[in-house]
What we know:
2 helices; globular
Amino acid sequence: MAGGIEFFFDLKNNTRIPSVGLGTWQSEPGLVGQAVYTAVKVGYRHIDCAQAYGNEKEVCFLSCSI
């Protein structure tokens, strides 16, 4: 993350993912998109989102505009 200590998980396929991410499960409509947008702007690169959460339209709408 921007200006912080970076920790990663090394995966078996020789890739890495950040150990700290933003979760979007049970996020309130009208807030989750802005939360994702802000998180990406400040350096988050691990966003936990899934179709089952039912908020993909809002998450993508704002985050895809970055």
